[in-house]
């Protein structure tokens, strides 16, 4: 039987990653944060002293990543810095970089890995920017998660402060707007909702409300119910 696929797209700090993680936990599904793949390629490039504007180096880094990637690589905290985030947004606009990373994502959706403890997954949840439009256009259910730039900047600012990183709210907001424009404006696989995506604005919602809404939609469309 074909595993169930849930596609979750949306912009930075929209809440899509939190939703994907929590849905995967309660539904017993494998989760892939596809942004971490692009981030790992950007980190590799920066560590090698490469320039994100140099296409050949970026493609080489993405190719190396696609050959060596292991899921635990996505836990590397070094990929979460804003410097890596900005470089990632640049290299992810390069079509040949995206082509390298596409297969990793499709393989994950088609053959989701076992869950911790060896349990068989009921399917895969992928979150990113182009999952519903390019990576898994046939996903069983698609969400497009948004929140106002101000809400997203406030969330990211709080998160950075809690990590002891000193940065102003205005700088975070400016960075957020710049990244949105680049992610949505690129010609290859721009961030945009699939025509059949369920739109979800989390600006005025708690994490629990977002989860409850999404679980209701998943049950309606696929019949999947929480395992716990
Ligand atoms: O979701 P994130 O902030 O970790 O994503 C980092 C960058 O990677 C973001 O600027 C856009 C890019 N990205 C992408 O182009 N396609 C994806 N499927 C996921 C992320």
Characteristic terms for this protein:
binds 2'-deoxycytidine-5'-monophosphate, alpha/beta, 5 strands, 228 residues, globular
Cofactors and ligands? 2'-deoxycytidine-5'-monophosphate
CATH class of the largest domain: Alpha Beta
Compute the CA-based radius of gyration.
Answer: 17 Å
CATH fold-level label of the largest domain: Rossmann fold
Distance between the termini: 23 Å
Number of helices: 9
Percent of sequence in beta strands = 5-15%
Widest beta sheet: strand line-up: 2-3-1-4-5
Order of helices and strands: EHEHHHHEHEHHEH
- Provide the number of structural domains: 2
Largest pleated sheet = 5 strands, parallel
In which range does the helix fraction lie?
40-55%
| Structural classification | alpha/beta
Mean pLDDT: 94
Cα shape = globular
Number of strands: 5
Descriptive notes:
- The model has no long low-confidence stretch (mean pLDDT 94).
- The protein is built from nine helices and five strands; from the N terminus they run βαβααααβαβααβα.
- With 228 residues, it is α/β, with parallel strands linked by helices.
- The protein has a five-stranded parallel β-sheet, with helices on both faces.
- Helix content is 52%, strand content 12%.
- The chain folds into two domains: 137 residues, P-loop containing nucleotide triphosphate hydrolases (Rossmann fold), CATH 3.40.50.300; 78 residues, no CATH class.
- It binds 2'-deoxycytidine-5'-monophosphate (DC).
- 2'-deoxycytidine-5'-monophosphate binds next to α2, α4 and α8.
């Amino acid at each position: 039987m074909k595993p169930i696929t849930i596609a979750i797209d949306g912009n930075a700090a929209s809440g899509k990653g939190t939703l994907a993680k929590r849905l995967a936990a309660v539904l017993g599904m494998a989760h892939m944060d596809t942004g971490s793949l692009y981030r790992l390629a950007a980190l590799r490039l920066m560590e090698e002293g490469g320039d994100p504007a140099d296409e050949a180096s970026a493609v080489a880094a993405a190719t190396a990543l696609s050959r060596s990637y292991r899921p635990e690589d996505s836990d590397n905290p070094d990929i979460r810095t804003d410097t890596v985030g900005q470089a990632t947004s640049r290299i992810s606009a390069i079509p040949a970089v995206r082509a390298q990373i596409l297969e990793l994502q499709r393989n994950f959706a088609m053959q989701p890995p076992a869950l911790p403890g060896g349990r068989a997954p009921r399917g895969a949840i992928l979150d990113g920017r182009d999952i519903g439009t390019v990576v898994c256009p046939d996903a069983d259910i698609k969400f497009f998660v948004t929140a106002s730039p101000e809400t997203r900047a406030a969330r990211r600012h709080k998160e950075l402060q809690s990590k002891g990183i000193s940065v102003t709210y205005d700088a975070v907001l400016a960075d957020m707007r710049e990244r949105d424009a680049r992610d949505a404006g690129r010609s290859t696989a721009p961030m945009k909702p699939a025509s059949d995506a369920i739109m979800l604005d989390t600006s005025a919602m708690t994490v629990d409300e977002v989860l409850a809404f999404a679980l209701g939609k998943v049950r309606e469309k696929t019949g999947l119910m929480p395992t716990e």
